[in-house]
Amino acid sequence: MRQMNILVLGLGYVGLTTALGLAEKGHKISGFDKSEKITAELAVGHVSISEPGLSDALARHLNIGFTVLSTPPTDLSDFDAVFICVGTPCENSGNTDLRLIFSAIDMLAPELKSFGGVVIIKSTVPPNTTKTKILPYLRAVGINAPVANNPEFLRETHCWEDFMNPDRIICGAEDAAAQEKLKSIYKGYNAPVIFTSLNTAEFIKYLSNNMLASMISFSNEMSMIADAIGDISIKQAFEALHLDKRWADASMKNYVYPGCGFGGDCLPKDLQAMISHAKSHGVYPAVLESVQNVNNSMASYFAEQVKVDTSESIGILGLSFKPSSSDVRFSPAAAIISALLYKGYSSIYAYDPIANLEFSDKYNFKINYCDNIDEVCKKAKTVIIATAWQQFEGIDKLYPDVNFIDGRYFL
Questions:
Q1: Whether 362 contacts 355, CB under 8 Å
Q2: Which of 163, 104, 92, 179 is nearest to 137 (CA)?
Q3: Active-site residues: which are they?
Q4: How far is residue 341's CA from residue 299's CA, in Å, rounded to a whole number?
Q5: By the 8 A CB rule, do 270 and 207 touch?
Q6: What is the third-level CATH fold of 5-196?
Q7: What average pLDDT does range 293-320 have in this prediction?
Q8: Which pTM does this prediction carry?
Q9: What is the arithmetic mean of pLDDT over 392-410?
Q10: Which of 57, 196, 226, 231 makes a 20 to 30 Å CA pair with 161?
Protein backbone atom coordinates (compact mmCIF):
# COMPACT_ATOMS: atom_id res chain seq x y z
CA MET A 1 0.00 0.00 0.00
CA ARG A 2 1.42 3.38 -1.03
CA GLN A 3 1.66 5.89 1.77
CA MET A 4 -0.57 8.88 1.05
CA ASN A 5 0.12 12.41 2.24
CA ILE A 6 -3.18 13.78 3.56
CA LEU A 7 -4.37 17.07 5.05
CA VAL A 8 -7.35 16.99 7.44
CA LEU A 9 -9.21 20.26 8.07
CA GLY A 10 -11.21 20.23 11.30
CA LEU A 11 -10.10 18.13 14.29
CA GLY A 12 -13.33 17.49 16.15
CA TYR A 13 -14.90 14.04 16.61
CA VAL A 14 -14.86 13.21 12.90
CA GLY A 15 -11.68 14.99 11.83
CA LEU A 16 -9.46 13.76 14.66
CA THR A 17 -10.72 10.19 14.29
CA THR A 18 -10.13 10.36 10.54
CA ALA A 19 -6.64 11.79 10.95
CA LEU A 20 -5.50 9.29 13.57
CA GLY A 21 -7.26 6.36 11.88
CA LEU A 22 -5.50 7.03 8.57
CA ALA A 23 -2.19 7.51 10.42
CA GLU A 24 -2.76 4.11 12.01
CA LYS A 25 -3.02 2.65 8.51
CA GLY A 26 0.38 4.07 7.59
CA HIS A 27 -0.53 7.32 5.87
CA LYS A 28 1.23 10.62 6.59
CA ILE A 29 -1.33 13.01 8.09
CA SER A 30 -1.30 16.73 8.80
CA GLY A 31 -4.21 18.24 10.70
CA PHE A 32 -5.41 21.79 11.20
CA ASP A 33 -8.26 23.26 13.24
CA LYS A 34 -9.20 26.92 13.45
CA SER A 35 -9.52 26.56 17.23
CA GLU A 36 -6.19 27.48 18.79
CA LYS A 37 -7.29 25.68 21.98
CA ILE A 38 -7.79 22.38 20.13
CA THR A 39 -4.50 22.57 18.24
CA ALA A 40 -2.57 23.57 21.37
CA GLU A 41 -4.00 20.64 23.34
CA LEU A 42 -3.37 18.12 20.55
CA ALA A 43 0.18 19.40 20.04
CA VAL A 44 1.05 18.33 23.60
CA GLY A 45 -0.77 15.02 23.33
CA HIS A 46 -4.06 15.90 25.02
CA VAL A 47 -7.46 14.82 23.61
CA SER A 48 -10.28 16.82 25.21
CA ILE A 49 -13.17 14.79 23.77
CA SER A 50 -14.20 11.59 25.53
CA GLU A 51 -13.59 8.89 22.93
CA PRO A 52 -11.96 5.56 23.84
CA GLY A 53 -8.90 4.86 21.71
CA LEU A 54 -8.13 8.38 20.53
CA SER A 55 -5.71 9.32 23.32
CA ASP A 56 -3.68 6.15 22.80
CA ALA A 57 -3.67 6.67 19.04
CA LEU A 58 -2.48 10.25 19.46
CA ALA A 59 0.33 9.07 21.73
CA ARG A 60 1.41 6.55 19.05
CA HIS A 61 1.33 8.90 16.09
CA LEU A 62 1.93 12.47 17.30
CA ASN A 63 4.86 13.97 15.38
CA ILE A 64 5.44 10.60 13.70
CA GLY A 65 2.51 9.84 11.40
CA PHE A 66 0.36 12.75 12.53
CA THR A 67 1.45 16.39 12.65
CA VAL A 68 -0.71 19.10 14.22
CA LEU A 69 -0.40 22.35 12.27
CA SER A 70 -0.62 25.67 14.12
CA THR A 71 -1.31 27.53 10.87
CA PRO A 72 -2.85 26.45 7.54
CA PRO A 73 -0.32 25.04 5.05
CA THR A 74 0.90 27.41 2.36
CA ASP A 75 2.00 24.65 -0.01
CA LEU A 76 -0.15 21.67 -0.99
CA SER A 77 2.14 20.28 -3.68
CA ASP A 78 3.10 17.24 -1.60
CA PHE A 79 -0.46 16.35 -0.57
CA ASP A 80 -2.57 13.66 -2.26
CA ALA A 81 -5.86 14.56 -0.59
CA VAL A 82 -7.55 17.18 1.55
CA PHE A 83 -10.33 16.00 3.87
CA ILE A 84 -12.81 18.69 4.94
CA CYS A 85 -14.25 17.62 8.30
CA VAL A 86 -15.78 20.83 9.64
CA GLY A 87 -19.18 21.23 11.28
CA THR A 88 -22.41 21.68 9.32
CA PRO A 89 -24.99 22.80 11.89
CA CYS A 90 -28.61 23.63 11.12
CA GLU A 91 -29.61 27.23 10.58
CA ASN A 92 -32.70 28.59 12.36
CA SER A 93 -34.63 27.78 9.19
CA GLY A 94 -33.59 24.13 9.47
CA ASN A 95 -31.37 24.29 6.39
CA THR A 96 -27.78 23.12 6.62
CA ASP A 97 -25.23 25.84 7.28
CA LEU A 98 -22.33 25.40 4.82
CA ARG A 99 -20.34 28.44 5.88
CA LEU A 100 -17.59 26.46 7.62
CA ILE A 101 -17.03 24.39 4.47
CA PHE A 102 -16.79 27.51 2.33
CA SER A 103 -14.52 29.10 4.94
CA ALA A 104 -12.19 26.09 4.77
CA ILE A 105 -12.12 26.36 0.97
CA ASP A 106 -11.43 30.09 1.12
CA MET A 107 -8.59 29.55 3.59
CA LEU A 108 -6.76 27.27 1.13
CA ALA A 109 -8.04 28.72 -2.13
CA PRO A 110 -4.68 30.05 -3.42
CA GLU A 111 -3.00 26.68 -2.80
CA LEU A 112 -5.95 24.63 -4.06
CA LYS A 113 -5.87 26.35 -7.47
CA SER A 114 -2.81 24.31 -8.40
CA PHE A 115 -3.65 21.29 -6.24
CA GLY A 116 -3.04 17.95 -7.93
CA GLY A 117 -4.89 15.81 -5.40
CA VAL A 118 -8.55 15.29 -4.48
CA VAL A 119 -10.75 17.41 -2.22
CA ILE A 120 -12.88 15.10 -0.06
CA ILE A 121 -15.96 16.37 1.77
CA LYS A 122 -16.42 14.31 4.93
CA SER A 123 -18.73 16.84 6.60
CA THR A 124 -22.37 15.79 6.55
CA VAL A 125 -24.29 17.65 3.83
CA PRO A 126 -27.74 16.98 2.32
CA PRO A 127 -28.05 15.21 -1.04
CA ASN A 128 -27.21 17.37 -4.05
CA THR A 129 -25.04 19.73 -1.96
CA THR A 130 -21.61 18.78 -3.31
CA LYS A 131 -22.86 18.79 -6.87
CA THR A 132 -24.87 22.02 -6.86
CA LYS A 133 -23.22 24.14 -4.14
CA ILE A 134 -19.71 23.01 -3.23
CA LEU A 135 -18.46 22.15 -6.72
CA PRO A 136 -19.72 25.42 -8.26
CA TYR A 137 -18.17 27.34 -5.36
CA LEU A 138 -14.80 25.66 -5.96
CA ARG A 139 -14.92 26.24 -9.69
CA ALA A 140 -15.97 29.87 -9.24
CA VAL A 141 -12.77 30.62 -7.32
CA GLY A 142 -10.62 28.80 -9.86
CA ILE A 143 -10.18 25.44 -8.09
CA ASN A 144 -10.37 22.59 -10.60
CA ALA A 145 -9.26 19.67 -8.40
CA PRO A 146 -11.47 16.56 -8.46
CA VAL A 147 -14.02 16.47 -5.63
CA ALA A 148 -15.52 13.54 -3.74
CA ASN A 149 -17.64 13.06 -0.66
CA ASN A 150 -17.01 10.38 1.94
CA PRO A 151 -19.69 10.40 4.67
CA GLU A 152 -18.84 9.11 8.13
CA PHE A 153 -20.82 6.53 10.10
CA LEU A 154 -19.25 7.01 13.51
CA ARG A 155 -21.07 6.45 16.77
CA GLU A 156 -19.98 8.75 19.56
CA THR A 157 -18.05 6.78 22.22
CA HIS A 158 -17.26 4.22 19.48
CA CYS A 159 -15.58 6.50 16.91
CA TRP A 160 -12.21 4.76 16.91
CA GLU A 161 -13.70 1.28 16.71
CA ASP A 162 -16.06 2.30 13.92
CA PHE A 163 -13.36 4.01 11.86
CA MET A 164 -10.83 1.20 12.18
CA ASN A 165 -13.38 -1.58 11.61
CA PRO A 166 -16.08 -0.09 9.37
CA ASP A 167 -18.92 -2.16 7.98
CA ARG A 168 -18.79 -0.18 4.72
CA ILE A 169 -16.95 2.80 3.24
CA ILE A 170 -19.09 5.03 1.03
CA CYS A 171 -17.38 7.23 -1.54
CA GLY A 172 -19.25 9.61 -3.80
CA ALA A 173 -16.77 10.05 -6.61
CA GLU A 174 -17.67 10.63 -10.25
CA ASP A 175 -14.09 11.42 -11.31
CA ALA A 176 -11.70 8.56 -12.12
CA ALA A 177 -8.76 10.33 -10.47
CA ALA A 178 -10.75 10.84 -7.28
CA GLN A 179 -11.74 7.17 -7.22
CA GLU A 180 -8.12 6.05 -7.56
CA LYS A 181 -7.04 8.30 -4.68
CA LEU A 182 -9.80 6.97 -2.45
CA LYS A 183 -8.95 3.38 -3.33
CA SER A 184 -5.38 4.02 -2.22
CA ILE A 185 -6.47 5.75 0.98
CA TYR A 186 -8.75 2.90 2.04
CA LYS A 187 -6.78 -0.03 0.64
CA GLY A 188 -5.76 -1.20 4.11
CA TYR A 189 -9.35 -1.60 5.34
CA ASN A 190 -11.19 -4.91 5.45
CA ALA A 191 -14.51 -3.47 4.36
CA PRO A 192 -16.34 -2.97 1.07
CA VAL A 193 -15.51 0.37 -0.55
CA ILE A 194 -18.64 1.38 -2.43
CA PHE A 195 -18.35 4.05 -5.12
CA THR A 196 -21.51 5.98 -5.92
CA SER A 197 -22.61 9.28 -7.41
CA LEU A 198 -22.08 12.36 -5.26
CA ASN A 199 -25.80 12.57 -4.50
CA THR A 200 -26.13 8.89 -3.61
CA ALA A 201 -23.30 9.00 -1.07
CA GLU A 202 -24.83 12.02 0.64
CA PHE A 203 -28.26 10.37 0.63
CA ILE A 204 -26.95 7.16 2.23
CA LYS A 205 -25.77 9.14 5.27
CA TYR A 206 -29.21 10.70 5.81
CA LEU A 207 -30.95 7.43 5.00
CA SER A 208 -29.02 5.82 7.87
CA ASN A 209 -29.48 8.56 10.47
CA ASN A 210 -33.12 9.25 9.68
CA MET A 211 -33.92 5.55 9.96
CA LEU A 212 -32.27 5.42 13.40
CA ALA A 213 -34.18 8.51 14.50
CA SER A 214 -37.44 6.94 13.27
CA MET A 215 -36.80 3.75 15.22
CA ILE A 216 -36.24 5.68 18.44
CA SER A 217 -39.37 7.80 18.06
CA PHE A 218 -41.41 4.71 17.12
CA SER A 219 -40.25 3.05 20.33
CA ASN A 220 -41.03 6.13 22.39
CA GLU A 221 -44.50 6.46 20.92
CA MET A 222 -45.21 2.79 21.65
CA SER A 223 -43.96 3.23 25.22
CA MET A 224 -46.34 6.17 25.74
CA ILE A 225 -49.24 4.07 24.42
CA ALA A 226 -48.27 1.23 26.78
CA ASP A 227 -48.11 3.61 29.71
CA ALA A 228 -51.55 5.01 28.90
CA ILE A 229 -53.07 1.51 28.70
CA GLY A 230 -51.49 0.49 32.00
CA ASP A 231 -50.29 -2.78 33.52
CA ILE A 232 -47.61 -3.16 30.83
CA SER A 233 -43.94 -3.62 31.66
CA ILE A 234 -42.35 -1.47 28.97
CA LYS A 235 -38.85 -2.73 29.73
CA GLN A 236 -39.96 -6.38 29.55
CA ALA A 237 -41.99 -5.82 26.38
CA PHE A 238 -39.07 -4.34 24.44
CA GLU A 239 -36.61 -6.91 25.75
CA ALA A 240 -39.00 -9.60 24.49
CA LEU A 241 -39.20 -7.82 21.12
CA HIS A 242 -35.41 -8.04 20.86
CA LEU A 243 -35.56 -11.83 21.15
CA ASP A 244 -37.07 -12.00 17.67
CA LYS A 245 -34.49 -13.95 15.65
CA ARG A 246 -34.61 -11.32 12.93
CA TRP A 247 -32.69 -9.00 15.26
CA ALA A 248 -29.98 -11.60 15.87
CA ASP A 249 -27.26 -9.88 17.90
CA ALA A 250 -27.46 -6.58 16.06
CA SER A 251 -26.80 -3.46 18.09
CA MET A 252 -29.74 -1.95 16.18
CA LYS A 253 -31.74 -3.10 19.20
CA ASN A 254 -30.36 -0.04 20.98
CA TYR A 255 -32.40 2.15 18.65
CA VAL A 256 -35.63 0.19 19.04
CA TYR A 257 -35.93 0.87 22.75
CA PRO A 258 -37.79 3.71 24.44
CA GLY A 259 -36.29 6.55 26.44
CA CYS A 260 -36.54 10.29 26.92
CA GLY A 261 -35.54 11.09 23.35
CA PHE A 262 -32.51 11.10 21.08
CA GLY A 263 -29.88 13.82 21.20
CA GLY A 264 -26.28 14.44 20.25
CA ASP A 265 -25.14 16.24 17.16
CA CYS A 266 -26.11 13.86 14.35
CA LEU A 267 -29.68 12.55 14.63
CA PRO A 268 -31.50 15.81 15.54
CA LYS A 269 -29.46 17.88 13.08
CA ASP A 270 -29.67 15.44 10.18
CA LEU A 271 -33.38 14.87 10.75
CA GLN A 272 -34.08 18.62 10.69
CA ALA A 273 -31.87 19.08 7.66
CA MET A 274 -33.66 16.37 5.68
CA ILE A 275 -37.09 17.76 6.61
CA SER A 276 -36.09 21.21 5.36
CA HIS A 277 -34.33 19.76 2.33
CA ALA A 278 -37.38 17.68 1.38
CA LYS A 279 -39.68 20.69 1.60
CA SER A 280 -37.34 22.73 -0.59
CA HIS A 281 -37.82 20.03 -3.24
CA GLY A 282 -41.61 20.06 -2.95
CA VAL A 283 -41.97 16.95 -0.76
CA TYR A 284 -43.86 17.07 2.54
CA PRO A 285 -42.07 14.53 4.79
CA ALA A 286 -44.95 13.54 7.07
CA VAL A 287 -43.16 10.53 8.59
CA LEU A 288 -39.95 12.47 9.34
CA GLU A 289 -41.90 15.36 10.87
CA SER A 290 -43.80 12.88 13.03
CA VAL A 291 -40.48 11.39 14.18
CA GLN A 292 -39.29 14.87 15.11
CA ASN A 293 -42.56 15.75 16.86
CA VAL A 294 -42.47 12.61 18.98
CA ASN A 295 -38.86 13.29 19.97
CA ASN A 296 -39.68 16.90 20.83
CA SER A 297 -42.56 15.75 23.04
CA MET A 298 -40.50 13.39 25.21
CA ALA A 299 -39.17 16.05 27.59
CA SER A 300 -42.66 17.28 28.47
CA TYR A 301 -43.86 13.70 28.76
CA PHE A 302 -41.27 12.86 31.41
CA ALA A 303 -41.61 16.22 33.14
CA GLU A 304 -45.32 15.44 33.53
CA GLN A 305 -44.39 12.28 35.46
CA VAL A 306 -43.22 14.55 38.28
CA LYS A 307 -46.26 14.82 40.56
CA VAL A 308 -44.83 16.59 43.63
CA ASP A 309 -45.35 20.23 44.51
CA THR A 310 -43.14 22.75 42.71
CA SER A 311 -41.51 23.67 46.02
CA GLU A 312 -39.95 20.19 46.18
CA SER A 313 -36.41 19.48 44.96
CA ILE A 314 -36.05 17.43 41.77
CA GLY A 315 -32.98 15.38 40.83
CA ILE A 316 -31.57 14.73 37.36
CA LEU A 317 -29.11 11.90 36.82
CA GLY A 318 -27.27 12.09 33.49
CA LEU A 319 -26.65 15.21 31.44
CA SER A 320 -24.83 13.87 28.37
CA PHE A 321 -26.98 12.66 25.49
CA LYS A 322 -25.65 9.11 25.87
CA PRO A 323 -23.54 7.19 28.42
CA SER A 324 -19.73 7.23 28.22
CA SER A 325 -19.86 10.57 26.41
CA SER A 326 -19.41 14.17 27.54
CA ASP A 327 -21.39 15.46 24.54
CA VAL A 328 -24.36 17.51 25.70
CA ARG A 329 -25.54 18.81 22.32
CA PHE A 330 -29.34 18.41 22.04
CA SER A 331 -29.22 16.61 25.39
CA PRO A 332 -32.61 15.18 26.46
CA ALA A 333 -31.68 16.22 30.01
CA ALA A 334 -31.56 19.86 28.88
CA ALA A 335 -35.04 19.61 27.39
CA ILE A 336 -36.38 17.94 30.55
CA ILE A 337 -34.81 20.58 32.82
CA SER A 338 -36.25 23.33 30.62
CA ALA A 339 -39.71 21.73 30.91
CA LEU A 340 -39.37 21.45 34.69
CA LEU A 341 -38.30 25.07 35.05
CA TYR A 342 -41.25 26.10 32.88
CA LYS A 343 -43.57 24.16 35.23
CA GLY A 344 -42.18 26.11 38.17
CA TYR A 345 -39.63 23.72 39.67
CA SER A 346 -36.73 25.91 40.75
CA SER A 347 -34.77 23.55 43.02
CA ILE A 348 -33.08 21.10 40.64
CA TYR A 349 -30.02 19.02 41.50
CA ALA A 350 -28.10 17.40 38.63
CA TYR A 351 -25.17 15.03 38.26
CA ASP A 352 -23.33 13.42 35.36
CA PRO A 353 -20.17 11.31 35.73
CA ILE A 354 -18.21 13.42 33.23
CA ALA A 355 -20.43 16.08 31.64
CA ASN A 356 -21.27 18.52 34.47
CA LEU A 357 -18.85 21.18 33.22
CA GLU A 358 -19.80 20.83 29.55
CA PHE A 359 -23.48 21.07 30.43
CA SER A 360 -23.08 24.14 32.65
CA ASP A 361 -21.00 25.83 29.94
CA LYS A 362 -23.55 25.19 27.20
CA TYR A 363 -26.85 25.72 29.03
CA ASN A 364 -27.65 28.77 31.12
CA PHE A 365 -29.82 26.95 33.66
CA LYS A 366 -30.01 28.04 37.30
CA ILE A 367 -29.61 24.56 38.75
CA ASN A 368 -27.32 22.92 41.30
CA TYR A 369 -24.54 20.65 40.03
CA CYS A 370 -23.64 17.77 42.32
CA ASP A 371 -20.43 15.77 42.65
CA ASN A 372 -22.01 12.31 42.97
CA ILE A 373 -25.21 10.26 42.95
CA ASP A 374 -25.52 10.30 46.73
CA GLU A 375 -25.71 14.08 46.85
CA VAL A 376 -28.57 14.14 44.33
CA CYS A 377 -30.55 11.41 46.07
CA LYS A 378 -30.20 13.10 49.47
CA LYS A 379 -31.30 16.48 48.15
CA ALA A 380 -34.24 15.23 46.04
CA LYS A 381 -36.81 12.52 46.62
CA THR A 382 -37.98 12.59 43.00
CA VAL A 383 -35.17 11.82 40.57
CA ILE A 384 -35.32 11.55 36.77
CA ILE A 385 -32.77 9.30 35.06
CA ALA A 386 -32.00 11.01 31.76
CA THR A 387 -28.90 9.05 30.69
CA ALA A 388 -28.36 5.30 31.08
CA TRP A 389 -24.94 5.46 32.71
CA GLN A 390 -23.89 2.07 34.07
CA GLN A 391 -23.21 3.73 37.45
CA PHE A 392 -26.96 4.41 37.78
CA GLU A 393 -28.05 0.81 37.34
CA GLY A 394 -29.69 -0.58 40.47
CA ILE A 395 -29.82 2.73 42.35
CA ASP A 396 -33.52 2.20 43.04
CA LYS A 397 -32.40 -0.59 45.41
CA LEU A 398 -29.78 1.63 47.08
CA TYR A 399 -32.23 4.50 47.62
CA PRO A 400 -35.64 2.88 48.26
CA ASP A 401 -37.12 6.14 49.60
CA VAL A 402 -36.51 7.97 46.32
CA ASN A 403 -39.10 8.01 43.54
CA PHE A 404 -37.10 7.31 40.39
CA ILE A 405 -38.61 8.28 37.05
CA ASP A 406 -36.70 5.99 34.71
CA GLY A 407 -36.25 7.95 31.48
CA ARG A 408 -34.27 5.09 29.97
CA TYR A 409 -36.27 2.04 31.12
CA PHE A 410 -33.25 0.26 32.47
CA LEU A 411 -33.87 -0.04 36.23
A1: no
A2: 104
A3: 266
A4: 12
A5: no
A6: Rossmann fold (3.40.50)
A7: 97
A8: 0.88
A9: 96
A10: 196
